[in-house]
Each structure stands twice: as C-alpha cells, then as structure tokens.
Amino acid sequence: MKSIRLKPGKEKSLLRGHPWVFDGAVxxxxxxxxxxxxxxxxxxxxxxxxxxxxSSRIRVRVWSFEPDQRIDADFLRERLRQSIALRTGWxxxxxxxxxxxxxxxxxxxxxxxxxxxxxxxxxxxxxVERFKPVIADALLSLTGCERLYERSDxxxxxxxxxxxxxxxxRGSGPTELVLTExxxxxxxxxxxxxxxxxxxxxxxxxxxCHQWVRQLGARSVLNCFSYTGGFTVAALHAGAxxxxxxxxxxxxxxxxQANVAxxxxxxxxxxxxxxxxxxxxxxxxxxxRRFDAIVLxxxxxxxxxAHAERAARAYKDxxxxxxxxxxxxxxxxxxxxxxxxxxxxxxxxxxxAGTDAGVDGAIVQRLGGxxxxxxxxxxxxxxxxxxxxxxxxx
Length: 394
Ligand code: SAH
Known about the structure:
By secondary structure, the chain is α/β, with parallel strands linked by helices. The chain folds into three domains: 3-64, PUA domain (Archaeosine Trna-guanine Transglycosylase, Chain: A, domain 4, Roll), CATH 2.30.130.10; 73-173, 2-Layer Sandwich (Transcription Regulator spoIIAA), CATH 3.30.750; 179-392, Rossmann fold (3-Layer(aba) Sandwich), CATH 3.40.50. The chain is built from eleven helices and 20 strands. The protein has helices spanning 12-15, 73-87, 126-130, 132-143, 156-159, 203-216, 230-237, 250-262, 277-286, 308-324, 343-357, and strands spanning 2-6, 20-22, 26-28, 36-40, 46-52, 58-64, 96-101, 110-115, 118-123, 147-152, 165-170, 176-181, 184-189, 220-224, 242-247, 272-274, 291-296, 326-336, 361-368, 386-392. β4 and β5 (46-52) form a beta hairpin. The longest helix is centred in the last third of the chain and has 17 residues, at 308-324. The radius of gyration is 22 Å and the shape is globular. The N and C termini lie far apart (66 Å). S-adenosyl-L-homocysteine is lined by residues 199, 202, 225, 227-228, 230-231, 246-249, 252, 276-278, 297, 299.
C-alpha cells in the first residue's frame, strides 16, 4: 500500500473530517490515478484512506478515516447503500431524485440521479472512476433499476486528468424521459441536457415559485435563464396568464415549448426569447414593461472565491434590473449557484442592487438546493445554491 505523508501541521482539516488533501499539503509520496493511499501525518500517524489524483490540486479525496477499513467493492456498495437509505422515506414530490451527492455522501466525485427507472451517473474524480464497474453493478442491485447512463462530461474531469465518457453503462433505452414533479410534468434528455439532464436541485424553489405566484395572484411572469422551463410550467400551473422565458440556448427553449404543451397550456401564454438576458432586461426596461413575478436563475458566475468580485458585479446588475422590472407587490426569485459566493454575500449583493434600483423589498423566503443535494457539517463546500424570494415594497 502506497502512502502520502503530509507536511508538518497539515493534518488539521483531516482531523476535523474534511475529505480533501490539497497538493500544497503533501510532503512526499504519490500513486497512480485513483489508487488507494494511506494518508499519514508528518510523524507517520495514520489519518485516512483516500484516492490519489496525481494531476489534481485536490491530490487525495478521502474514502475513510477508519484505520482498519478496506477500500474494496464491499466498502463502496455499503457507502452507496447508506446514501440511498438516507433518502428513503423522505417526502420528495418527484420521480427525479439525487441518490448520491458526491463528497456529501462519502463518495467523492460521484453524482447519481434517478429518473423513474433510469439512473444517470457522473464519475467526476479518479477514485470513483477506478471503481466504475463495481459502482455500476451495486447501483443496479440496490435500486432495482436496469438502466444506467453515464454523463461523465463535466469540466471537473479534466482537472482530474480524465477524458469525457458518456453512454449507457448498463442496459439501454430511450434517453428522452418525462419527469413528474409536484403538479407538473417535464420532459428531458439525459444524453443532451445539462448536468444529468435536468436541474433537480431547484425542485423546492419551483414549488416556492408556484406557491407565491398563486398567493399573490401574479398574472405576468418573466423567467430568466429558463433552460427547459421548470419555473415557466410551475408559474403557469399557479395561474399566471403569461410567462415570458428567456434563454440563450435554442434547444433548451424548444424543450421548454414542448413542456408547456405537455402540461396542456397554450403556446401563446408562454412566449420565448432566444436572447442574452442582460440585453433583454435592459430592452424590457426601456420599453416600460413590468412583471408581477421574475425568476433570475443564472449559470454559475463564480465557480470559486477567486471569481467572486467580478461575479458580484454581474449579480448586482442582474438583480438591479430584476427589481426595477417588478411591479410593486410583485415577487423576485433570485438565485446564485456559485460556490464562490456565500449566502451572506449574496444577500448583500442583492441589497446593494436594491439600493441602486431605489427599491426596498421584503425577503419572504430563503431558498436553496433540495434536501437530496445536501451540504454536510464536515463539508460546507457542498453548499452552492442559494436564493431569495423578495416581495417589492414600493
Ligand atoms: N432555471 C433553470 C436552470 C437554469 S440553468 C431550471 O430550473 O431548470 C442556466 C441557463 O442559463 C442555461 O439554460 C443557459 O443556456 C442559460 N444562459 C446562460 N447564460 C445566458 C445569458 N447570458 N442569457 C440567456 N441565457 C443564458
């Protein structure tokens, strides 16, 4: 068994149960990609078993802090079982559920989503890559599903020195599926869609949007960065007369229109704009258009803290426009999925956007990733998605 010895004093985060060893903490030792290593302190004390990733800044991702633990097929199967068991019995109003949320479930780099009887997995680190066949077989036997599609095409794989890999790992079937969530149905494509096909993490926020639109009797809604229209359909089901959706992806908007039809709504109630949101919001403002509810769910603008300052300006600008375009008494749903921007900073940015817009608002609800996408006490990096529902006061 190969060892990785840390530099003096670099064991503290591991002793707290954090699952990463950065390259700068390594004193000596290395191993092949995905090979299990014994991580030890500068004086040779055992700290953890982990998977080595020689080309990544995250040099080791921890499997276990137990000295006697063997990292083998049984170990992985048990971790997968625990991850699925954690969610068993939860009232998730959808047949799309995240079964494994990577580090937060003790399986660094592994994402597994279940859409009905189809599983979709992303192998985002060398450790889970090495155990791929074991993981695939265990997932089928633990869930009873017969199909597993691989979507290992994230940019994180590059950092791990891994090439993209996509396609059926087990079984086969259609890649176009229909998901039932809350009061609506949404079509998606697990081969072509974002992430594993859909933004399951926004499930609860789509419900919040539905509830507030209904409660406030919002008639005109603007859904920015709409993707395939989850919020659009939620707002239509809540009684909105018209929901305008903006996205710069043609295929996403085509899917959105299919989703509007799938839910039985007339296309005239859901116009789409294939355009840049920043430009469109300025155009709307110039034209004097106003809305009763607005969703701002932009892509990740600050993947890490290093990008935070530039991203903060972009978020502020978006939110200023959003607040200006809102009728008094209307509601803004604003999100950030940037790991580099925390909850407090996000609220500050939105507050400062309000100052610039000359608008005060009541924060009526805090929003975040659905509970099957948890962050954990030991791995706060797992928090990425945060949001606010704000009712414009004047
Ligand atoms: N709200 C969606 C997820 C949004 S993902 C849901 O709940 O399903 C972010 C979306 O923003 C993507 O569909 C991407 O195509 C779009 N996008 C990114 N930059 C954009 C821009 N500048 N203008 C318009 N759309 C953009």
